[in-house]
Specification:
By secondary structure, the chain is α/β, with parallel strands linked by helices. The chain is built from 11 helices and 11 strands.
């Protein structure tokens, strides 16, 4: 019986289980056997897997996270010895093709493995929405919804106490979450990695709001935002976890092993209070953006990607990534995907900036 493998790599996000379920349903319909590797690439190295069936994937479309588990293990870290361990597992289990669900780091590893002869297809998932080649990645819309709801709640406490609220959201290299959630929630200012800011201009906009009788402000900042002079913002934002996917959570200017609990939002707070005298509080949403039930958009997108990935494997169309272009799901060569980056759409930021101040 032909066998397909499935794994989830990098950080978790809502919608992963919907992808797994869709791949299983579509492949089983053509008589294929499915196995899922636990913990991402390390599951192949350790030959740690489970058979995926209709029974153990039933009802998981609504669940966040991933039933297979994930990790940032780098399959290329050991060089050729590591590759041989992966090959041995795939041979032992008669895996004809592998569905790899992950972000840009996981996709980069998948491309190297494809070039080394591993038969695979990929599905983009990242709440940062920074994978090139696709309009949206699995998990992004849920993260935006979570961030939007949190910012909505902060409006009332900011207004009640005449405060500036600085809300830090994920986005090391791209400001998609910050711009989208900030626009949706009526933020008064949005700071993103693609547009270095001047703290003097930020503070002047806050003062102007107060002069016009608006006694509170909401500033949404992506974790990777930096000032033009480099004085605010944290170095090492391009650093990557061992598996390659960008790190999420609180940023610091120290190595991860010596991490201090201060990120860009805390640096902004200190500067805003020093330059304006306004009472300023910080909320760092952090990993809450990754958790919980996926919204309908992500469930649908994940299901479409999963079915398309299974059909690509069934057709022998390998070395590709499933992508959403407009309303269509298509297969894009991995080489094409990884040849580009995907910064925030400047038109989205321009629209959001209309509402600043």
């Amino acid at each position: 019986m032909p066998t397909f493998g499935v794994l989830t790599g990098g950080g978790d996000c809502p919608g992963l289980n919907a992808v797994i379920r869709a791949i299983v349903r579509r492949a089983l319909a053509d008589g294929h056997r499915l196995i899922g590797f636990h913990g991402g690439w390390i599951g192949i190295r350790e030959d740690d897997a489970v058979e995926l069936t209709l029974e153990n994937t039933a009802g998981i479309v609504t669940r966040g996270g991933t039933i297979l588990g994930t990790s940032r293990f780098d399959p290329m870290a050991d060089g050729e010895p590591g590759l041989e361990a992966l090959r041995a597992t795939l041979r032992r289990r008669d895996v004809d093709a592998l569905a790899v669900i992950g972000g840009d780091g996981t996709l980069g590893a998948a491309r190297e493995l494809w070039q080394a002869g591993f038969p695979l297809v990929t599905i983009p998932k990242t709440i940062d929405n920074d994978v090139a080649g696709t309009d949206f990645s699995v998990g992004f819309q849920t993260a935006v919804q979570i961030a939007t709801e949190a910012i909505d709640r902060l409006h009332t406490t900011a207004e009640s106490h005449n405060r500036v609220m600085v809300v830090e959201v994920m986005g090391r290299r791209a400001g998609w979450i910050a711009a989208s959630a900030g626009l949706a929630s009526g933020a008064d200012m949005i700071l993103v990695p693609e547009r270095p800011f001047r703290i003097e201009e930020v503070c002047e906009q806050l003062r102007a709001r107060h002069r016009h009788g608006r006694r509170f402000s909401i500033v949404v900042v992506a974790e990777g935002a930096v000032s033009q002079d480099g004085a605010i913002g944290l170095p090492g934002l391009g650093d990557r976890h061992p598996a390659g996917d960008t790190a999420a959570g609180v940023l610091t200017s120290h190595p991860r092993s010596l991490a201090a609990p201060s990120g860009i939002a805390f640096l902004l707070r200190d500067q805003i209070e020093a330059l304006t005298g306004f009472d300023t509080k910080v909320t760092v949403l952090g990993h809450v953006q990754r958790g919980g039930t996926p919204v309908a958009f992500d469930r649908i997108l994940a299901s479409r990607f999963g079915v398309a990935a299974a059909e690509a494997m069934l057709a022998g169309r390998l070395g590709v990534m499933m992508a959403l272009r407009g309303s269509r799901v298509i297969a894009v060569d991995l080489e094409e995907v990884l040849a580009h980056t995907k910064p925030l759409d400047p038109e989205l930021y321009r629209t959001a900036s209309v509402f600043f101040g």
